Amino acid sequence: MYCPTCLNDSLQINKSGIINIIINSKKLDNGRFLFNLVDQTEEQVFETFEDKAEDFFKWYSKFQNPSKIQRIQIISSNFNCTSGCPFKANMKKSVLGVLLPEEEVKEVILTLGEKYNLEVELLDDEDNTI
Question: What is the Cα–Cα distance from 112 to 106, expressed in whole angstroms?
């Protein structure tokens, strides 16, 4: 990934941190989770994502008039530049394709949409979304 400061391909995710899940600009208080690549495999991180996504869909399906799910953000601020560049404290980047496989995430979202009778039409967007 490219560092927003030095513009080199030197941005990498930290070994541990927090991932936030935001769907249609909404998030649950428990819609974030910790990851630790020292103690967890990427598969275990993905399983945690699946559990948190299901929690969201259960919650969202209880809305009286839920809108179509179009934007999914799975982001973290736990990145660093191998060149040591400083970042703003509020910088968040997508973990799709870095820690979570994008196609598998889409599959989970579509499956959960069907399971909870929610319409899913994901927009192709550059803003940390799928």
Answer: 10
Going by C-beta distance under 8 Å and a sequence separation of 6 or more, which residues neighbour residue 122?
A: 69, 70, 71, 72, 106, 109, 129, 130
Please give the Cα distance from 50 to 107 (Å, whole number): 11
- Between CA 122 and CA 31 the distance in angstroms is 19
Neighbours of 53 (CB within 10 A): 20
Dihedral sign for Cα atoms in the order 119, 116, 62, 35: negative
Question: pTM of this prediction?
Answer: 0.86
Q: What is the pLDDT of residues 18-62, one digit of tens each?
A: 999 998 888 888 889 999 999 999 999 999 999 999 999 999 999
